[in-house]
Structure formats: structure tokens, C-alpha cells
Design goal:
CATH superfamily: Spore Coat Polysaccharide Biosynthesis Protein SpsA, Chain A
Strand content: 15-25%
Structural class: alpha/beta
CATH architecture: Alpha-Beta Complex
CATH topology: Spore Coat Polysaccharide Biosynthesis Protein SpsA, Chain A
Number of domains: 1
Radius of gyration: 20 Å
CATH class: Alpha Beta
Number of helices: 10
Shape: globular
Distance between the termini: 50 Å
Order of helices and strands: EEHEHEHEEHEEHEHHEHHEEH
Length: 308
């Protein structure tokens, strides 16, 4: 049963919709809202679906007339994914950004830069940058894959061998085409294998179905590390899903390199624009081995740094 609703429906369709599930993280909510509000790109709506918070979340939401939001009790065993889809269907944007309630957008021009790429290149399905960790009290920390700022990862079709080697994926900082998000993001159905880690299922679908990413060398957002995160609370549920993802990536890699599956590339309108040919497979194999080795060395080096 809804305890409060604020529709804030815009006069015309927004270009970008930011969708945010929320539950008892009011202490972070204002910073998240303000970071989106202060983007240089203004054709943006922010949709928040709150799961009936018992802290001051609703009081914060009432401070912002531009927010489209609803607060109602979660039902079922996966309320956060239900809330995400509610927010999606309340949204109007041509492009979708999923932002956690404890995170924030760091680069003031992020939406502008990402939307410009999507506007001019219809091959691209989503644009991504790099996240930076921040502590519970807002202290900035490590930038994920900081080496990409100086040496960007492969773009578009060339990204596939990197994903096949590492399973590398993105979610919260990326800007997606609406139709692709709707078609490929994990649904909360009992038979969906990734419903408790939906970003993994989304990345698997994006890459195996041939949708093309574009990277911008920008630290686009903050990802907050704090007590009570879902990763801590539901580790026993998340761990087997994560292992399944790694197995599924490995199996797809094996099937592709052996010729058991055909891989097609698709543009941002889901039209087939290319295929991995048999002549490509030897090249892919060499690239995958190189990426696998580099990633293994990187992980070992990071473990050493973490101990210092």
C-alpha cells in the first residue's frame, strides 16, 4: 500500500531518465539527488521508487519538487529489482541510467558527454565511464580500472574479446538506450538465473547478443562503500550467482571459439550489422589469451597493493 506519491510528470518526454530504487538510505539520498540535479545537461528526470523506508527518506524526497517518486512497502523476496522496474515504467527517457541511492554522479558533464555519443552514433548501445569508490563518510578512494584513463579499453565490436576473457561488465555509471535496457535487463521472475545479481545477467545479454559499448575516459560516478550493503547481507545468495556468470562466460567463449555458436553484432536499434567469422576466430583466440594474462597479472598486483 502506497504511503506517499509524487508524480512530477514533465511537460514533455525527457531525454535521460535516472532510475533509483531506495530503502532506508536517506542519509545518502540528498547527495545522490543533488549530483544529478547539478548535471550540466538538463533534459533529465529522476525517478525514485522507495520500498517504504522507515527513516527520513520520504522527508528528503518531499524537498525536491522535480523528483518523480513513490514510496510503498516492498513485497516478495527481491524488492530492489521490483523497485527498479517500477521506476523504469514510471520513466519517460530515451536513455536510461541506473543509479544506486547511495551513489552519486561525479563528472558534471557526464550525461552531456554520453548522450552526445548516443545521439550521433546509432551503432552504440551504451556509453560508460569509470567509478570511484567513496567511503561511508564521503572520502574518495580508489578509481576502478584507472589505467583505462590513459589506455582505454577496446571500443564497440573490439570489446568482445576483452569480455570473453574477463567477463568485464558495467552498469551503474552507464547511459543505455531505453529499448535495449528494457529488452535485456534482468526481470524478477522465479526462473531468471540472475535475478539476485541482475547486472550480471544484463552484461551477459548485452555481450552475447552483440550490443556495442563505447567508453569515455571519464571518472563518471562515485560508488559508495557502506555498512549494510546488499553484497554483505546476501553473500550466500550472490556467490553462486556470480560463479554461474563466470561459468556462462567461459562456456560462451568455448562455444564461440569452437564454432558451435555464431555471434552477431547489433546496433542500437537491434539490427544485425556484422558477424564474427571463422577467419576472426584465430585472432580472437590470441586476443583472449593476451587479455586473460593481463587481467591475471593485474589482479595479483592489486592483491599485493591491498595488503600494503
Amino acid at each position: 500500500m502506497a504511503i506517499d506519491v509524487h508524480p512530477a510528470i514533465p511537460a514533455e518526454r525527457s531525454k535521460i531518465s535516472v532510475i533509483t530504487p531506495s530503502l532506508n538510505h536517506g542519509r545518502f539520498l540528498r547527495e545522490t539527488i543533488e549530483s544529478i540535479l547539478h548535471q550540466s545537461y538538463k533534459n533529465v528526470e529522476h525517478v525514485i521508487v522507495d520500498g517504504g523506508s522507515t527513516d527520513h527518506t520520504v522527508d528528503v524526497l518531499k524537498e525536491y519538487a522535480h523528483i518523480k517518486w513513490i514510496s510503498e512497502m516492498d513485497e516478495g523476496d527481491n524488492g530492489v529489482l521490483d523497485a527498479l522496474w517500477k521506476a523504469f515504467y514510471m520513466s519517460t527517457g530515451e536513455y536510461i541510467v541506473f543509479s544506486c541511492v547511495s551513489d552519486a554522479i561525479k563528472d558534471r558533464d557526464w550525461f552531456k558527454s554520453a548522450s552526445e555519443i548516443l545521439d550521433r552514433d546509432d551503432q552504440v548501445s551504451h556509453v560508460w565511464g569509470l567509478p570511484q569508490y567513496i567511503s561511508e563518510d564521503g572520502q574518495p578512494g580508489r578509481v576502478t580500472d584507472v589505467e583505462f584513463l590513459g589506455h582505454p579499453p577496446p571500443q564497440k565490436k573490439d570489446f568482445l574479446p576483452l569480455w570473453l576473457a574477463t567477463g568485464y561488465g558495467v552498469e551503474c555509471n552507464a547511459v543505455y538506450r531505453r529499448a535495449i535496457f528494457e529488452a535485456l535487463y534482468t526481470k524478477n521472475t522465479v526462473d531468471a538465473p540472475y535475478r539476485f545479481l541482475p547486472s550480471l545477467g544484463f552484461n551477459y545479454n548485452l555481450n552475447t547478443q552483440g550490443y556495442l559499448p563505447y567508453f569515455l575516459p571519464i571518472i563518471s560516478n562515485f560508488g559508495r562503500v557502506h555498512g549494510g550493503q546488499r553484497q554483505e547481507k546476501y553473500y550466500d545468495i550472490f556467490e553462486p550467482v556470480s560463479k554461474r556468470y563466470n561459468r556462462d562466460v567461459k562456456l560462451y567463449r568455448q562455444n564461440l571459439l569452437s564454432g558451435k555458436v555464431r555471434h552477431f553484432f547489433r546496433d542500437g536499434n537491434s539490427r544485425v550489422i556484422g558477424e564474427v567469422t571463422r577467419d576472426d576466430l584465430d585472432i580472437y583466440g590470441k586476443k583472449i589469451r593476451r587479455y586473460f594474462l593481463k587481467n591475471s597479472l593485474k589482479r595479483k598486483f592489486q592483491r599485493i597493493l591491498d595488503r600494503i
